Structures are given as C-alpha cells and as structure tokens.
C-alpha cells in the first residue's frame, strides 16, 4: 500500500474541494485532493458561475483569465406564466465586471482552478483516486484510505476535508447526522439546439402544467423539466413523443428541433435533495459544500455556496494547518460562519418549492405570484433577488496572504 503524509487531504475534486485545495496551497499548506474520475468532463452539472464566485476570482487576480474561456454572460432573468413574461432579476447593479452570471461548463472551471493550483508546490491532485475509508485513532480522524490507479493508498493528514457531494460515503462513515428538509420536485435535464433569433437571456416557463427552465449555452439550450417528486417514471411511461409535446407547448420550440431528444438516455434525472448536517465536523474531519448542505437547483446557487464554503474554510484553517495547531475550535468556526447563509438559503428554496413551484404543477392556470408581479412593475426591486441569488447572504473573499508559486511550503 502506498503511504503519504500531508497537512490536509481533500476528498472530492468538485468546486468546493478544488477551490479549498487551491487556496490552502496558495497559503502555504501542503494539500492532497482526491478525485475519483479520470477528468472533470461530466454533463448537466452546475454550470452557473455567479457574481459571488466572479468576485472571488477577481480578488485572486484571475478574473480576466477565467472569462477568456468560452462562456455566456446573462444579466437578466424572466419567467413566463402562460403567455405573460415577467422580468424578475437584474444582475447588472452588481458591477460592470461581475454583474452577470457566467454560463460556463463546470469542467472548464474546474480545469482552470486545478491548473492554477498546480503552480504551488504544496498542491497535489490525484485523479482516478476514490476515498474508501477513514483512518481513526483514539476517536480522532487522522487520514483516509483510498484506491488509486496503482492500487491502495493510505494518506495521513491533520485534516480530512470532505467535499465529495451529497452522497458522500465518508460523511456517512463519520456518523454525522443529516437533517432532511424535504424536496417535492425532481428535475429532468436535457439539451436542445438554439437558434440565433431566440431570446438569449435565461428563461423560466410555466405553462399548461409544465415548468421548464432554459439556460443559454450558446448554440444550445440546457433545459430543466420540473416534475413532482418521483414523477420521472410517469413521464417516461407516457413516452418520448408526449414529453417532446409538453416541452414544445411550454417553450414554443418547434417540433423539428425537439426531435433531437430521440432517446431517454439523453434525459438525465436529478433527484433533488435539500438537507444539511447538524454538525459538520469531527476531530480531524470537516464537511463543506454539498457534503454539508445539499441545495435545491432553485436559483442555481449550490456551486457558489460550495465555493464560498471553501474560501471560508481556507481563511480560517490555513494558519493552524500550516503551523500544526489545528483544533476542533477551528472546525467549529467554519460551521458557525457558513451555517447561517446555508440555512437561510435552504429555507428560501423550500418556500419556493412548496409555495410556488409545486402549486404551479397542480394549477396550470395560476397567475404569477404577487411578489413576482411587483418585481415586474418596479424594475428597481429586481436588484434585491439578484443580490440574494448572485452574492448570497455572507459573501466570502480570500485573504491576501499567499506564498509565491514555486516557493517551498
């Protein structure tokens, strides 16, 4: 068995794990990140980079490089109820350089962060390496065991940072209790080609009992079809032709383009979860991102809360990790700082799921809710949901201190 020793080992190479690894290495901490896949190329992941994340990249001096990658900026969002369009969000007041949501494939974002992290000698990324078990000694987590392409790996560390998503096996092994907040919906993800004459801004459409979200990805729409919880099998049982008709009726996309959905393999199910850990830590272990709080896709804020978790964790933990003085108190500080924004955001998502989205599936002809009608009539007010969605309740920025790339840790 290969054996390694490091200050921090991170399970999961998603937005939370890679950003935490990057920022810790930037602060002079030895860190190893484990990613079970051979690359980051997976479809229908969260591809929205919100203003909060853009501001983090700006603070790191990386915004221009990031935005040189292919992306589509959308600055406004509207919802259509039947044939009535209701503008509800305006991101432009959040800044000339960051007042938009960048639609960018998540694999491009992750590749970018990994490349920047690799400039620091204390950063190691192990691909095709999956965490399997925790190492515990006298009630404290002291590392983990994993399986890599060359066989078993044992990594000893002062901290195991769990950032491997809502289905984290390490989190379950650690015995941390999950509080389920409920989710009355699931989502079917798919794509349809886009023509140049269509409205480029991202849209939500509620019509004839169907709810469809359209996200502009340049030459195609990334689309989300909302169904009641566990309702995907019923949709499939009705057949692809019926599904295409429902999408066409809700969006106005012509039948010829919808023929691109010619196999159910092209329609991916996201089983929506909204939950959070009551305690995010154990001595020697901390959960962040979806492993600590699974978010609904409502607002597309999950990736951005995960990134902010990573920034907060690096800000609080870098010095004690670097100095070998990490304690439970430091882990508690991370949860204390990030719990409130996660909790309030989840409450808002649950409210929208229960009071707006689920009733719209049951009552096809329901008018727009009163708050949305007010937003449509008073443009100034659209900056408030933009701030909530775009920046969140406690935006994080990385601390200024760093080691120079190439310097020893």
Protein topology:
Elements: E1 2-11, H1 15-26, E2 31-35, E3 48-49, H2 51-59, H3 63-67, E4 72-74, E5 76-81, E6 84-90, E7 101-103, H4 106-117, E8 123-127, E9 130-137, E10 140-148, E11 151-162, H5 169-173, E12 178-180, E13 185-193, E14 202-207, E15 210-216, E16 220-228, H6 232-238, H7 240-251, H8 255-258, E17 268-270, E18 275-277, E19 281-282, E20 285-287, E21 293-294, H9 302-323, H10 328-362, H11 370-377, H12 383-390
Parallel strand pairs: 1-2, 1-11, 2-8, 5-14, 11-20
Antiparallel strand pairs: 3-7, 4-7, 5-6, 9-10, 10-11, 12-18, 13-16, 13-17, 14-15, 15-16, 18-21, 19-20
Helix pairs in contact: 1-4, 1-9, 9-10
Keyphrases for this structure?
409 residues; alpha+beta; FAD/NAD(P)-binding domain; D-Amino Acid Oxidase, Chain A, domain 2; 2 domains; 8-stranded mixed beta sheet; 7-stranded mixed beta sheet
Low-confidence stretches: none
* Class from helix and strand fractions: alpha+beta
| Superfamily (CATH H level) name of the largest domain | FAD/NAD(P)-binding domain
Shape: globular
**The CATH C-level class name of the largest domain:** Alpha Beta
Distance between the termini: 26 Å
> How much β-strand is present in the residues?
25-35%
| Major sheet details | 8 strands, mixed
What Rg is obtained from the alpha carbons, in whole angstroms?
Answer: 22 Å
């Amino acid at each position: 068995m290969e054996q390694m020793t490091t200050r921090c080992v991170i399970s999961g190479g998603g937005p939370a794990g890679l950003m935490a690894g990057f920022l810790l290495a930037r602060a002079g901490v030895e860190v190893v990140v484990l990613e079970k896949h051979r690359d980051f190329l997976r479809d229908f992941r969260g591809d929205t980079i919100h203003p909060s994340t853009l501001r983090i990249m700006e603070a790191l001096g990386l915004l221009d490089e990031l935005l040189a990658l292919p992306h589509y900026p959308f600055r406004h969002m509207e919802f259509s109820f039947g044939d009535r369009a209701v503008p509800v969000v305006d991101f432009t007041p959040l800044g000339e350089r960051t007042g938009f949501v960048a639609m960018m494939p998540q694999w491009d974002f992750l590749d970018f962060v990994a490349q920047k992290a690799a400039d620091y000698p204390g950063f190691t990324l192990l691909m095709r390496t999956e965490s399997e078990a925790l190492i515990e000694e006298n009630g404290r987590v002291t590392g983990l065991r994993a399986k890599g392409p060359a066989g078993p790996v044992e990594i000893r560390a002062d901290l195991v940072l769990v950032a491997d998503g809502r289905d984290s096996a390490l989190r379950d092994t650690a015995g941390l209790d999950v509080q389920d907040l409920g989710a009355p919906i699931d989502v079917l993800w798919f794509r349809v080609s886009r023509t140049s004459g269509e409205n480029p801004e991202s849209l939500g459409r509620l019509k004839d009992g169907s709810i469809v979200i359209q996200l502009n990805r340049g030459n195609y729409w990334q689309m989300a079809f909302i169904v009641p919880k566990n309702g995907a099998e019923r949709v499939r049982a009705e057949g692809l032709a019926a599904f295409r008709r429902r999408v066409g009726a809700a969006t106005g996309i012509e039948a010829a383009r919808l023929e691109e959905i010619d196999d159910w393999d092209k329609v991916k199910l996201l089983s929506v979860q909204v939950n959070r850990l009551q305690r995010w830590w154990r001595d020697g272990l901390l959960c962040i991102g979806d492993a600590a709080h699974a978010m609904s896709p409502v607002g597309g804020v999950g990736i951005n809360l995960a990134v902010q978790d990573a920034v907060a964790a690096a800000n609080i933990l870098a010095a004690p990790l670097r100095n070998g003085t990490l304690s439970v108190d430091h882990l508690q500080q991370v949860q204390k700082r990030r719990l409130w924004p996660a909790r309030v955001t989840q409450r808002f998502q649950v409210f929208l799921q229960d009071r707006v989205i689920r009733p719209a599936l049951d009552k096809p002809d329901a008018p727009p809710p009163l708050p949305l009608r007010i937003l449509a009539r008073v443009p100034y007010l659209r900056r408030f949901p933009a701030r909530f969605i775009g920046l969140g309740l406690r935006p994080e920025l990385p601390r200024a201190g760093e080691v120079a790339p190439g310097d020893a840790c």
